[in-house]
Specification:
The chain has no helices and eleven strands. Strand 5 and strand 6 form a beta hairpin. It is globular, with a radius of gyration of 13 Å.
Length: 115
C-alpha cells in the first residue's frame, strides 16, 4: 500500500523559507512522477511543482524562481524548498505520487505565511 507522509510545514514570516519533505513507502519510488500541490482556503487544489523519474522539473508560474522541487531516490523522499515566501503561498501542501493504479496523496502539511 502506497503511503506518503509530508512534513516541514509551519508558520513563517513573509520573505522566509521552509523545506517540505515527503517520505514514500509501498511504492517503487524511483520510477514515479512526484508532485507537490497546494490548496488555499476557498480555492481549488493546484499543482505547485513536479519532478519526473529522471529529474526533470516543472513549476507553476506563481512560484518560479522561488520554489525548487528535488528528489532523493535512495531515501524515497521528495522535497520542496520554498524561499521568499509570500502570504499568498499559505495553504495545505500535499505530496502526490503518480502510480499505474492512479494518483496517491499524503495527508498534507499546513504552511502559513504571515505578512
Amino acid at each position: 500500500q502506497v503511503q506518503l507522509v509530508e512534513s516541514g510545514g509551519g508558520l513563517v514570516q513573509a520573505g522566509g523559507s521552509l523545506r517540505l519533505s515527503c517520505a514514500a513507502s509501498g511504492t517503487i519510488f524511483s520510477i514515479n512522477f512526484m508532485a507537490w500541490y497546494r490548496q488555499a482556503p476557498g480555492k481549488q487544489r493546484e499543482q505547485v511543482a513536479g519532478i519526473s523519474s529522471d529529474g526533470r522539473t516543472s513549476s507553476a508560474d506563481s512560484v518560479k524562481g522561488r520554489f525548487t522541487i528535488s528528489r532523493d531516490n535512495a531515501k524515497n523522499t521528495v522535497y520542496l524548498q520554498m524561499n521568499s515566501l509570500k502570504p499568498e503561498d499559505t495553504g495545505v501542501y500535499y505530496c502526490s505520487s503518480r502510480e499505474l493504479a492512479g494518483d496517491y496523496w499524503g495527508q498534507g502539511t499546513q504552511v502559513t505565511v504571515s505578512s
